[in-house]
Amino acid sequence: MKKQKHDTRWMVSVALMAAIVIVLANTPLGMIQLPIIKATTVHIPVIIGAILLGPSAGAILGLVFGICSLLSNTFAPTLLSFAFSPFLSTTGIVGALKALWISVGCRVLIGVAAGWLWILFSKIRLNQIIALPLVGFLGSMVNTVTVMGSIYVLLAQQYAEAKNVAVNAVWGLVMGTVTASGIPEAIAAAVLVLALGKALIQLFRKMNMPMSGE
Which one of 64, 136, 176, 197 is at 20 to 30 Å from 122 when CA atoms are compared? Predict the structure, then answer.
């Protein structure tokens, strides 16, 4: 009975976190204005969910994030939406599979990586003040590096054509995105995961909720 209760509470918690992902992905709340760029916050509940509920929950939340990204790029396409929507592929089925990996697969990896990092840091008893922002930073970088890295490896030619540059210039554009967008997003994630994660961990403990890494 206790296990069933925990399972039910786990599913409810995952559903609530998934709802937050959907809200952030479909409203201006999913973007925060930094001095130079706007940084996405959609991956924050994915990372926090992975910390609280484990890598499997993180994978589910990453899947929800990925599906939201896929749908957004399908119904409100931009210059690079071919890299995120299999329905806008310019290279047939192969391109569709690549887009599916970039939009969904890479986002699943956020939750898996964040969940296992938290378990690792818990086992070595790393202080939460250090562990939480570290998981937030690295989880966010997983998003940026895997997405942009996959675009470079799988879709460099199409990316170059969309940007109207030579193929050999794609690496510089990818690294520019990682530096200008990915690092500020990761810093923002570190701060938010520390603030929200610490409060939610305390709440979970007061509610006697089973937590990942404990």
Answer: 64
187 three-class SS: helix
* Strand (E) or helix (H) holding 198: helix 183-206
- Cβ–Cβ under 8 Å, residues 141 and 149: no
Token look-up 């069933």 returns 4
The tens-digit pLDDT sequence of the chain (214 residues) is 344 445 888 999 999 999 999 999 988 888 765 554 456 889 999 999 999 999 999 999 999 999 999 999 999 888 899 999 999 998 899 999 999 999 999 999 999 999 999 999 999 999 999 999 999 999 999 999 999 999 999 999 999 999 999 999 999 999 999 998 899 999 999 999 999 999 999 988 888 777 776 6
**What is the total residue count of the chain?**
214
CB contact at 8 A, 110 and 65: yes
pTM here? 0.92
